[in-house]
Amino acid sequence: ADMADEATRSAFLEIQASMIELTGKLKQVQNQMRNKEGDKKRAYLTLEELRPLPEDTNTYKSIGRTFVLEPKKVLEGEQEQKLKDSEAAIASLQPSKEYLEKQIAEVENNFKELLQQEPAIVQQIVSMSV
Fold it and tell me: How far apart are CA 14 and CA 107, in angstroms?
């Protein structure tokens, strides 16, 4: 019986390690996506403010603590580029997010199977590792 316990224990530890690693990676991807969503929103709102202004309006760009005079067209172009870049970054992160979510679901299934096979041992291991 000891060999089976040991096998169950190492299977559990493997599942636990995978779970920690995968959820960590998923959090990273979600944070990157959230940051890009923020960039996208800022660019969008800036464009909403810029577009209605007459073409000859003096517009300024902040660089650090200084404000530099820049043509409205140039500023709009920069914001449009930021919007496009953010959208592209979000789109490129999406497959990673989906892949990690799938992996996590698989690991959860493995855990459920292990729990069905060896409920007593798993309970023991879980209470020990908490």
Answer: 10
User: SS3 of 42, please?
Assistant: helix
Structural element, H or E, at residue 69: strand 66-70
Whether the Cβ atoms of residue 107 and residue 15 lie closer than 8 Å to each other: yes
Q: What is the predicted pLDDT for the residue at 129?
A: 64
* Environment class of 125 (CB within 10 Å of its CB; exposed 0-12, middle 13-18, buried 19+): buried
Residue 1 has pLDDT above 60, yes or no: no
At 74, which helix (H) or strand (E)?
helix 72-117
Token pair belonging to 106? 């698989």
Q: Is 44 exposed, middle or buried (0-12, 13-18, 19+ CB in 10 A)?
A: middle
Which domains does the chain possess? 1-129 (1.10.287.370)
pLDDT at 3 over 80: no
Instruction: Read off the pTM.
Output: 0.80
